[in-house]
Specification:
The protein has four helices and 13 strands. By secondary structure, it is an alpha+beta fold. It has a six-stranded antiparallel sheet with strand order 2-3-4-11-8-9, with no helix packed on it. The protein has a five-stranded antiparallel sheet with strand order 1-13-12-6-7, with no helix packed on it. A two-stranded antiparallel sheet has the order 5-10. The longest helix is centred in the N-terminal third of the chain and has 16 residues. It starts with 5 loop residues before the first helix and ends with a strand.
């Protein structure tokens, strides 16, 4: 019996390790009460409020976040980069009011029964995820709020006008719009029904009833 060439065995082990460590979980959200969503919203997007302060929720894929990393020109020290095992949310916002909108997305959280899933704060993120494999996704850059349009026009030299600080309110000026990606505590596979808590007008709190589905892609 011929021996397996060492180079083939080495290549197989690298492939096996990459498969085992890849973050291949796919999460989707479904409204428990479909009429709650607004007409005209793209598939996979949930309209949370209308103009003059429009707020929408969607789930970014790993590819979406990786593309953002490329657009931000973030380099990786690791040959194989991967995202920390968290649940990620993307919020798109638009302000058509004449006054500034102080939007605090750090106040967003989920509840399921007696369990709460909140935004992972920067210090906790850095303490938990020290692997060089995560180095392409620095907290202050990937999870910052960005103003990307003013009077529906993009900037000339880069994709944003203003970059805010994660975990702090974002001052959204008149005729401005943008987005923010939030890293949330990972929601276990067994959780099916969940409630989203998010900021409404005049510092009120609003909720949205959802069903969550997480499976391997």
């Amino acid at each position: 019996m011929k021996r397996t060439p060492r180079i083939f065995l080495f290549a197989f082990l690298i492939f096996w390790f990459a498969q085992c460590t890849s973050n291949d979980l796919v999460t989707s959200l479904v409204l428990k009460n479909p009429p709650q969503n607004r007409k005209g919203s793209p598939e996979g997007t949930f309209r949370l409020s209308d103009l003059p302060h429009r707020l929408s929720l969607s789930l970014p894929t790993n590819e979406n976040i990786d593309e953002l990393s490329e657009e931000l020109k973030l380099s990786s020290n690791a040959k194989y980069s991967r995202l920390p095992p968290l649940t990620y949310l993307r919020f798109d916002f638009e302000n058509t009011n004449s006054s500034v909108w102080d939007l605090d997305l750090n106040a967003v959280y989920f509840t399921a029964g007696d369990k709460t899933f909140s935004v992972i704060q920067k210090n906790e993120y850095r303490e938990r995820y020290t692997s060089v494999a995560y180095s392409r996704f620095p907290y202050d850059t990937i999870f910052a709020p960005y103003i990307t349009l003013r009077q529906k026009k993009p900037p000339k030299d880069k994709f944003w006008f203003t970059k805010g600080k994660p975990n702090e309110p974002m001052a959204v000026g008149s005729e401005e719009s943008g987005f923010q990606i939030l890293p949330m505590e990972f929601i276990p596979l067994e959780v099916e029904d969940i409630t989203l808590h998010y900021p409404g007008e005049n510092k009120t709190k609003r909720t949205l009833q959802l069903s969550i589905k997480t499976e391997r892609g």
